[in-house]
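Running co-folding for adenosine-5'-triphosphate.
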Amino acid sequence: MYLKSLEISGFKSFGKKSTLDFNSPIASIVGPNGSGKSNIAEAFRFVLGEQSIKSMRGKRGEDLIFNGTKDAGRQNRASVKVVFDNRKRVLDIDFDDVSIERVVHRDGVNEYLINGSSVRLKDIIELLAKAHIGSSGHHIISQGEADRILNANLRERREMVEDALGLKIYQYKRAESERKLEKTEENIKSVESLRREITPHLTFLKKQVEKVEKALVMKDELTNLYLEYFRREDAYLKHEKKTLGDAKRGPTEALAKLEKELSLARTVLAKSGNKDEKSNELISLEGKIRIVRENLDVLSRSLGRLEGNISAEERRREKAKHALGSADEKLVHLKDVEELEKRVGESLKIAEGSEDFSKIREVLKSIRDIFARFISDKKQGGAPKEIEDAEAELTRLNSEKKGIEAEIEKDKKEEAGYHKAYETLKNDIEKEKDSSRDAEKAIFKIMAEQNQIHGELSVLKVREELYHHDEEDFKRELGEAGHLVGRAIVEYENFKIQGEALETDRTGQQERRKRIEKIKVRLEDAGGGGADDIMKEFREVSEREAFLTRELEDLRKSSASLEILIKELEQRLDIEFKEGVLKINKQFQEFFALMFGGGTAALEVVRETKKKKALTDLDLEGMGEMPEEMGEEEEGKEGIDISVSLPRKKTKGLAMLSGGERALTSIALIFAVSQVNPPPFIILDETDAALDEANSKKYGDMIENLSKYSQLILITHNRETMSRAGILYGITMGSDGISKLLSIAFEEAAQVAK
Ligand code: ATP
């Protein structure tokens, strides 16, 4: 037993709250016509999520709400709550009791609740579908709808059978998958269109990026070229500077030395201008020497004459002396002796007064000299006058001779002096002559050397100018490079070079410079402006593109898997449907034979015939444009046909059945279907209305059998049916127009039902 209770409040004729407890496998609802019994069946439909107001005999949601009578006011809301016993977890929710409630308000707003919590309609439908309960269809058979399945067309019948077999869930899933598929296809289309929209922009950006990348590659190449170029240029310039410095040093120093030598040589040369002065001096010396020589000649002649005079005088004196004889007997005058005594006495007096022995000795010696001179004087004294004269003359002559000799000596010395000076001067002049000649030669040599060095230096000067030029170029190019490829260029000194950085041969550098210029031109043509923006935009757009591609892939994948799912669902549906039909047929045949005491009944799966008639040429002529639906070839769908043949009668087919026979056939079919896949409960609203007594009995038996599989709620006027119920609810409607519920005994019920 699954159905526990139904609570109705404000729904249709149930102006007041009424509760039905279904604590028996079969419950019967009885009551007079118009008391509100069918409203109960509709309350079930309502609470189980029925959306068709029409199927609940209304036009708008408002029609479902108790509308009031002349004695009772109308309600603003209608609510129905059904409570299930869920201990067997028929409903996929982890509660032993599950209540489902629906409320409708006058403004048409619906509320759905599961166990008091607000939910969506979808949640209720899903929950119930899994338990093989639905708002409409197979397990709620409304009044007069028992033979609906017989009246329906092939396709509708198939749907009904599918529903009864519990295949609705597949249908539902398929529909959902189809919806999803449709949505996915829509999404695919919109993503595709988005992709198409950005494609041209992306293509454009790609080209731009290619340009930028090319420019970047060129820039890289340029940077490397520059780095190598600068590294080498720097090495070259440094080397050149040093080389020039070294090369200049030698000649400059040599030049300075030569300058000194030149000025020295010039001085020497200038000095040789004194030559005349020296010659004059030489002439003057020659004059002096001549004068001295003439003087010496005069003096020599004078000396010769003197010496002649002296020898003549000496001969005259010798002759006088010879005439005179010896001098031993000479006489001395007293006066002379006194004189002598006086002189000696004076000396003695000095000696007597002195203590100094050496002084005394000196005095003694002088005394001896005095005596010696006295004697010598006295010996000579007394010679004849001639001797005396001669002697005087000799003395005079000798003294004259001495004077001349001294003069000669002096002149000779003077002459020797002049001679020496003359020789020196002459030597000097000779020497000067030599050195000026040398100086001249040296000057020429120096000047030649200077010329040569100046030549060398001017070569160096040219090289130096070239160097400065190169240095200027280097600086300018460095600035330019920095502008073109950025600050990285200042790192050129760290740039690694294969082999030596220094190349004295300039062709390599010239080659590099040419290549640099070429790339510069190409780079300019490429125009790398706005590179960052382009890259950024490209990144963004391609990310978006990639995102869309991924999205598209995902969508396509899910579309494919949805298609597979739909296929699978269809196959499953098809298999289960066919298996179900086979099972139903077995029961159908049984119940049919039971009801009619024989005969055959079966459901047949058939393919619908095509509805469209073929167009004739005539039809086509009259039409301008072919209507779309006519052009389509409708696929014939599978449906269900019912074939019946009654026992002992020749008639076959549904059309030939009487009203009662139709009712019996449909009951047999409903029961067969219900038994194959029993729903938790079945509501049958006066399905038994058309049955005669005998058939009512058979109906009652079948009901009892069915109640083993499903809980039954039977709205009926039939006593036989009532007799099979475990609980009876009587519905009455008083003058207030409100349906009232009373639980009653069978006899009472039978009475009430009338
Ligand atoms: P029968 O045995 O003849 O089939 P029944 O017991 O099934 O009758 P219902 O059809 O369930 O009767 O009830 C119909 C009654 O419900 C009518 O009297 C109708 O006036 C009343 N009714 C329907 N809708 C409303 C409503 N919105 N407000 C008040 N009463 C309503």
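Result summary
The mean pLDDT is 86.
The two ends are 29 Å apart (CA to CA).
Job closed.
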